[in-house]
Amino acid sequence: MKTKNLLIALLLFSFTAFAQQVNVPKSAKDAFSKLYPKATEVKWDKENQGYEASFKLNGKDMSVIFDKDGKVMETETAIEISQLPKGVEKYVMDNFKGYKITGAAKIVKANGEELFEAEITKGKEKKDLFFDKNGKPEKKDVNKESEKENEKEEDEKD
Prior knowledge:
The chain is an alpha+beta fold. The chain has helices spanning 2-19, 26-35, 88-95, 142-157, and strands at 40-47, 50-57, 60-66, 72-79, 100-109, 114-122, 125-132.
């Protein structure tokens, strides 16, 4: 009986692990290897129409999104909160009462456009806000981004 239960548990675990794998095109993997040969802790996810590699490089958390052909769509690098553009902290204080900036990142799109992300939290609630290089808020659907992040975190817990 113990053997049967163990076998069932192993099969369920294997199926779950298999179901969570992302089928990343070879072109994206090859491009990643060329661009970031010293990356560690690499994890791939499906991101809309692209493939996102999250990793560490020189102690920094980073991610890069590739299209199916291996072209970089955007990169994201964690930065210190103090490196956010001027005015971001004031904007958060004025428009998101009770929230605190808990994380920051610099995003560079394929066309060279730079955006800054401020992760804000209030209790268990998290939101991602986006700003241009001058600290002006971007009109991106904050709630959608927050929902995606929350779903991602829930999936990682499972």
